Every structure is written in structure tokens, then in C-alpha cells.
Amino acid sequence: MCAKIYIIVASVNVLSNLYSFEKEIAKLKDNVKVVVVDEGDEVVRQKNKEILKDFSYEFYGPRERVRWFKDHFTNTYEKYSSAIPEKCHAETSFGFLVAYKEGADVILELDDDCFHASNHNLIREHLNNLLSNGGFIVSSNSKWYNTIENLVLNNDFVVFPRGHPYAPEARIESYNWKKTNNRKCVLNMGLWAGYPDLDALTILYNGGLDGRCSIKSVGLKRDKVIVDGGTYFAICSMNTSFQRRIVPAFYQLYMKVMGVDRFDDIWSGLFIKKIADHVSDNICLGKPLVYHDKRTRSTFKDLKAELEGMIINETLWRIVDSLELNSKDYFECYLELANGIEKNVEKFSEKAHRDFISLQVEKMKLWLEVVDKIK
Fold it and tell me: How many domains does the chain have?
């Protein structure tokens, strides 16, 4: 398949990691465009232009994003641009809009601290997992699959990824496996060598004060794990590809507000899994590995950013799981899901959490308006 591929990177840094993917991007460069969502720092941009000089690329800082919304929405641009948060990872949603509008077949989100991993090919392996039929199907009576289970770690610790609920019943690792030859997917989450995606509490418990700890991934157990209907997993967006048609239901939630951050991809992943299950599509994880050379930062600061989200998470996933969807496409299912969450907002015991969820529902519906107007 000669897919039109958009690589979305939200970053304020020099994209030195893209050097490591240069050869594989070059082989497909007529089919690949890199969209960088940044903050408009011209010094950093000049360095990134040098890195990207042989490829098709665009930068979207605050000025360019305003111009894009003005071009598409004229006098109402401020209303619609407010769907995208500022100065946080969830700005990747804007990159999804660009890719969607320009007709991308496959969208690949890549964080700036993810580098080429030996014996893996980023684009080819993402396309293979999305478009090939094989793989292993996993289901769990606990309704959750631990993605770290599919990694070979440098120790025998049992750890769970960022976003996996803490309720004991969601951490029972009793899985049912079967092989399949007939399962293409709408989303593939690539995993990591180096530092796996752990939450701040786990990192602290394992002695990490700088955002990293001694737990490392050294390999992959299975190339493609398809998570069966009714089983959820923590979707991390740092190395994730997906097909264009799910964009209406894959808004990265509005973060850095009301004391909540670092759950944009987790909850967008929860929502897309619920909807994909309903419409009988498949979502998988596995290859390609990238080497995650996580940037050092305060683990305590991350813990503060994650704590309220961890509390919300324990209730939100149960609400989503309980909803009955009746629509047939991603757009209508996402609207139905947003309405369902809104109707259940009183299940959150704290007013601050109810207010936060109400804001998310508002932004989710606004996202659908944006998508509807640009499609």
C-alpha cells in the first residue's frame, strides 16, 4: 500500500531523534509529511529545518495555528481554536486536524524522545500491524490488559503502565490468548525499548527522582497483540499510528487545566477502544519498538500533574465501559459517548472532578464540530 503518511510531532525541542529515522523516511519520502506542532521558537525551528530539509514538512506554532483556524472558520475561529490546549502534549490534536484535512491515510504520532531501535523499522512495521491479518488476540476477565506484559524487562518486577487503573480487580493478570490470521487494525500502539511508559508513582517507588528508574525494556515478546473486545489497555501516544477514519473519535483531551495533566492520550485511548469494539474494528500493540530515551525531569512534579487524573480514572473507565452505543460510525459514536459521560457526571464524588469532566465533554463536542466543518 502506497499510503499517504503524516508524522505528527508536538515539541519545543530540536528534533534530533528524527536523524535516527532518516533512512527509512527517505525510502518513502514522496508519501511522508512531517507536521511539527511547536511554540514558534525561530532558533529551534532553524535547527529543525536543517534536520527536515530533505522531507516535506510544516511547522505550526501559535501564529500558524491561529491562521489555520481563521482560514477555515473566519469570524468564528476563536471558538473552534479553543478546542486545542496550549503548551502541552495534547496539542497533537491540531496535527491530527491538519492530517485529516489534507487527506492522510495513516497518521503516526511520535514523541521527540523516541529514537530508532535496532532491528525495527518505524513506518514499515506500523503499516504492517495496521494492515496485515495476523497476530495474537488477548482478552482478560479483569477487563484490562497490562501492556508491559508484552515487553521483556531487565528484571522480574511486575509493573503496570501509566494510565492503568489501580483498583486491584483491574490488575489481575489472567489472560486468554488465541492466534488469528484475520485481524486488520485501525490503531497500532508501538512499544518501547529503554524506559517504558510508567506513571510517577511507580517510578518513585522504584527509586526514580528524575522521571526515570531502573526498570528498562530490552525487547518485545510478540509483534502484534490485538486486544479483544471488552478488554481495555493504556494507550500511550508516543509511538502510535492510526487510520484516518478514526480521527473524529480520537481527540487528545484538554490538559493542563484544573490541576490535571498527562491523561490526554490515556482517556482518548479509552474512548477509541470503546468505540472500535462497538463498530467491530480492531486495535493492537507491539512493533515497532522505539528507543525511549526519556528526558530527565522531576518525578514529584509529574506526580502532582497525574494525581487528580489517577483519581478520575478509576471512575471514568467504569462509566465508559457501562455505556451502550448504538451509532454505526466513529463521528456519531463519539457524540453518543460524550453525551453518555455527561449524563453520568454525578458519579464523580468531587465537584472539581465533575467540573473537569464537564469541560472535557464540551471540548469533545467542539472537536466534532471542527471535524465536521473541515471534512
Answer: 1
